[in-house]
Amino acid sequence: MEDIREYVVFKIDNEYYGIDIKFVENIEKAQSITRVPFAESYLEGVINLRGNIIPVVNLRERFMMESKEITKDTRIIIINFNGYHVGLVVDSSSEVVQFDEENIEKAPKIGDSIKNDFIKEVGKENERIVMLIDIRKVLDIVETESK
Amino acid sequence: MDMNQYLEIFIDESKEHLQEMNQILLELENKPDNLKLLDAIFRIAHTIKGMAGTMGYSKITNLTHKMESLMHEVRTGKVKVSEKIVDILFECFDALEEYVENLIANGEEGALDTEDLVNKLAFMISNGGDVETEKTISNSTAETEEETNGEHRFSIEFDDITKNVINKAIESDVSIFKIDVILDENCMLKAARSFIVFNKLESFGEVILSKPDVELIEDEKFDSNFEILYFTKLDQLTLYNELMNISEIHKIVIEEIDEKIEVAKEDKIINVVETNDKEIDKISNKLEKKDNKKQAKKASKTVRVDIERLDNLMNLVSELIIIKTRLEDDGNKQSERRTSEMHETIEYLERITTSLHDAVMKVRMVPVERTFNRFPRMVRDLSKELGKGINLVMSGEDTEVDRTVIDEIGDPLIHLIRNSIDHGIEDKATRIAKGKDENGTVALRAYPDGNTVVIEVEDDGNGIDSEKIKQIAINREILTESDANQLSEKELINLLFNAGFSTAKKVTDLSGRGVGLDVVKSKIESLNGTVEVDTVVGKGSKFIIRLPLTLAIIQALMITLKEEIYAIPLNNIKEISTINSEGISMIQDQEVVLYRGKTLPLIRLGSILDTKDYEKNVGDMLVVVIKKGDQEAGIIVDELIGQQEIVIKSLGRYLKGINIIAGATILGNGGVALIVDSNQLF
After folding, report:
1. Does A88 touch chain B (CB under 8 A)?
2. For residue B163, what pLDDT is reported?
3. What does R_g of chain B's alpha carbons equal in angstroms?
4. Less Cβ around it within 10 Å: N or C end of chain A?
5. Which domains, and CATH codes, for chain B?
6. Rounded-to-integer distance, Cα B233 and Cα B236, Å
7. Is the complex ipTM more than 0.90?
8. Domain count of chain A?
């Protein structure tokens, strides 16, 4: 069991990304998001999740990709990273994938893409490549703490 | 057995006892010969010792045991209460407090070593009067007499049933004795020895009660003594001799109960063989007082509730209020079709939620006394340390505020009081030269004011010189000279609250000053409160803290900026008005309008919050006039939705420290509106 890792896989454009399942609390359909002034540009806003206020990060904005309208497939993945409850807006998400340790490799550096900072590993499943994201980096939690 | 479940109780109770001890110690300093106070300290030390013993905290047990012994000596007059004694008691108190803090933090007593203190105590005990000297027991009468002079303290207590039994027994020809059996220090098998004592006693009469319980004694779970309530037909002297025949017994103390307990108010309760009457009167008087005290203590019934449970209850009430708002919204939407029944129902629901909210809030309210309690001690220490005479005057200790506030407000207040004493109040010579009373006064007041609670810290010291502040601000390059010259006196004084200012100023003063006034300010603002200073040079200064009564649910004005909805706490709103853009003029890049004979700075909230599609309003526009202390400003908004009770929700850790936004609230439709912290707009 030790060498199997489980990831929640989601899609942005035609690429697949994965988040370690241990950080994922649940996956919500898109709902109205309230903008928060003075926050980072990639912070889409906050949502009401059953009475709790959850900040939501737009991963497209974070990865410096073109923005896209919310569709019926749009999902908000609610994660709990060391007590930080944050939602991630993604194009769609529907599956959990298990990777054998041997199918996980260090991510190759791709040009000067900002994604290099966020993706340290990739998982291979049949023909598909899933980019495994480093949540601490994506949420920039160190910086937030020192503020 | 798992002791953890008792840990909380232990901590809570010890805290309470320590608080009481603190107060008594302070009182004792002024009235060193008040026996009641000595009794009380003895009782507290004893109680804590008992509790700590049960929990297995040997350091606490050790320390309190020695405290108890010292108090015993003091009470019997063998040691006189002196400043030294009060000081050492304070030291003990500090040590105990630290132990309890350690227990809170990590469930263990911690490494604090009080052996020194224990030795000091022991030294005092043996120096003040010979207590533990090993007198050979030659004459039973002498021994008992010594104990009477020493007024041996029995800790055994009776419940009502036992008291009834005692009272009945008194009517018959049975004698009732309280016996304290003190085993030899070197006694190896304490349990076995006590078993022999019990055996012997059982052969002449009946053991009714023992402290600790018989089971505990059998398990050897006691120090070196145990107390017994005993019915027998033997007389006291015979009983004494019988018991002293058992080996390895250090001392036996016997008291006879020959008066009914409940009615024993005027006369002696306890009689000891062959003692003179005066002694007895003294003892019984003291016991009477103790009895009265016990009854008074029973007066209020309380239940300890975990704050988390209260928070939970509070959240549920919040949910209810949200649903109520939603119902109101729905009702309004279909106002034409809305029947009067629906209207009534909603009003009823509103009444219930409001009173439920009030009730829950009240549960969370605690008197500020809890925080104020520690100040007399602090002021005492400070005034000793600095050699300044300080009178601390407190009022309104019973003013109630939310529990969360109580926990948070302590540090800012400590800081303000320290400030007043350090920097405000002059030394004795200066005060006399100025024609002031040589002792300075620090007043700490709390009182409710509408929806807020006000706490004031006032001193009659030297006040704050705004000119000096100006100079420092210029020297430290916080302000340029020309900027500084334009500030009013009040604005200059408010510079004190700037980060980097306050700490800088204190470099020349007392060392070890941790936080600055900026920390005080930010702490209070984090509680949605405000702080102001009033000062007259030469006369003194007054810090005024205003805190909201409740934290979680507030009244707010809901406004819109384009598509976005924001809430502005009603507390901070003075009024709402309309102005015309033609009335706006510019002063130093700031839009102002003449309003009620004063210039009112205008804030374009939409621009500050960077609202999407924001455009400058022109023509007639709505202005919400907000206030902070005696400053005012007008916020220009697009539309008013109305006043609403809102539940404040935090934005969470991830969005900590976002400017101007104090939190969020959930709207009737499930959406989220942000709460504007209007204090930050100034």
Report:
1. no
2. 77
3. 33
4. N
5. 4-128 (1.20.120.160), 140-297 (3.30.70.1110), 307-366 (1.10.287), 368-548 (3.30.565.10), 553-681 (2.40.50.180)
6. 9
7. no
8. 1
